[in-house]
Amino acid sequence: MAYGIVHHFPGGTKDQYEASISAVHPSRTSLPKGQIFHAAGASPGGWTIVAIHDSKESWERFRNEVLMPKMQQGIPGGFATPPEETPFEVSNKIP
Question: I need a labelling partner for 22 at 20 to 30 A (CA). Which of 2, 32, 72, 80 fits?
């Protein structure tokens, strides 16, 4: 079952997003293994990212092996604080 994550970075900016995404995604035109959707943009009070993975296990692998190690090392110009995180099981995905 697909698995979604919503990350909201209070006070986050597009520049911080660009620095962070460059550090954790393979490129601007491809997604990490297991991720099937990615959207991001300015939202009230900061920056929000929505990612859909093909499974909860895929998300956890990306989080544990890529995202958290990079964020703990510090990403120059990246988000300064951890996000507010809302996970959800995807019950409908079109297409």
Answer: 2
Q: What is the DSSP string of 17-53?
A: HHHHHHHHSSBTTB--TTEEEEEEEEETTEEEEEEEE
Per-residue confidence (pLDDT) for residue 6, from 0 to 100 = 98
- Whether the pLDDT of residue 2 is over 90: the answer is yes
CA separation for the pair 80, 53 (Å, rounded): 25
The two structure tokens encoding residue 58: 């895929």
Residue 77: C-alpha distances to residues 4, 81, 83, 93 (Å): 26, 12, 15, 33
- Are the C-beta atoms of residues 62 and 28 closer than 8 Å to each other? no
Handedness of CA 80, 44, 48, 86 (dihedral sign): positive
| Residue 57, Ramachandran bin (φ over 0: left; ψ between -120 and 50: alpha; else beta) | alpha
**Alpha-carbon gap, residue 43 to 28, rounded angstroms:** 21
Average pLDDT score, the chain: 96
